[in-house]
Amino acid sequence: MRTILLLSISLFFINSAFADQVRIYGRNASYANSKIEIKYHADVFTYSEKHIAEFVVDAEGNFSVKLDIDETNLVFLPLGMYKAFLYVEPGKEYEIKLPPKKELTPVQKLNPFFEKEELLIGVANADASDLNILIRKLDDKVDPFINQNFHKIYRRKDKSVGIQFSAQLKEDHKAVANNYFQDYLNYRLGFLEYLAYPTSFRKIEEKYFENKEIKLNNSAYTSLYKKQYGNFLTGFFSQKESSELKTALKSESSYRDIHELMRNYPAYKNVQFRELIIATSVFDAFTRKFYSRKKSLEILTDLKNHSTNDYNINLCTNYITKITHLQKNYPAPAFSIGDHQLANYKEKYLYLNFCNTESYPCVQDFKEMKKLKKQFGEHVEFLSIACDWDVTKFLQFTSKNKLDWPIIHIGDQQNLIGAYGVKAYPTYILIDSKGNIVKAPAQGPKENIQLEFIKIARDAVRKAYKK
User: Fold this and answer.
1) Over the range 306-333, which residues count as b (16 or more CB within 10 Å of their CB) and which as e?
2) Does the predicted TM-score (pTM) go above 0.70?
């Protein structure tokens, strides 16, 4: 299933006027009375998830749901321990075989490093021409071949053993009439060629991308695209346009200047393709610390504002969200647990604490937080979100220990652990009165956070005095 992780796809455009229905049905008694979602990745670069539909399994384990889609796509079902994928084609029905139900344990739900097991869903009514079967069989040939023969492929050029292997695969599948699969095969073999010629940028570009249809809904295409263009602005294009690119990056209109530089190349005359390359390679340059946060945001924001392509606009939005995540003066992730919502803390600063009441450091910090609450509570609100694996023990702790601020259990909002970048307990976040991040993570109560609180209190006094 490693292939699915690398070759995830998106572009799930639903238009009821032109779409065909897909029916997904089946039976698995272990999921009786369960509600199951169907999702897709809104873009293939940030893997942001979007909800498509949901269905309820009846008491006998039967389920059926219909989707409107206008092109082949890869969807997935979050199933407790599993993230189960399925290729769906317009107008087809899929009797799927769900894995035995296996819920996440409380420990797994609250473990920020836990990753679900990924798998392809079995299709009971599939024949040899089913796309899921075709792709699975192809991947079962290609992946082991690469792993076992990497030293005979990488940088071997025309001596690569992948040449004969690719020719045989083309011959074996020439009668397959499925266009999606033929594209998939073409770009999977393109990856073999990329491995043989990793420094021959133009060779791969001319054969697989120049003046070709953009096929972001095909997972093999996007996988090869990422290898080819991931570091475009710091790699190939930096070598071709070294001086001009440096000048463009120093200007106040970097996006426009880079866009115009690329216009001179026939391979990038397609505006959507040009924008896509700029967006993905700018984000790559940022993550590898070649471009500053400020410059990256400037370019992506300008691209987003000038683009007329919905996919590229959404991609830039997602990149901007990632770059500004938990950064100072940008919005803190929203939360709503019972009566406690981030929106309710807009009048004061909020000292947010992620803790575990069975953790000795957390319990010791509570003693210090009591002192801080007493000293700065007029200007700073305190909230502890307990991430205890055992809710019973959490309730026992709160019944025996009365704190001077709210402490609530995280409940089913485990997504907040990732949203706030929690890697250990305790973790602290300081949020201002507008709901923006001040520090993430912030110092703990034993780490001079009171200096921040003193500044907050002084600023509040100054504002009150001016009034």
Assistant:
1) ebeeebbbbbbbbbbeebeebeeeebbb
2) yes
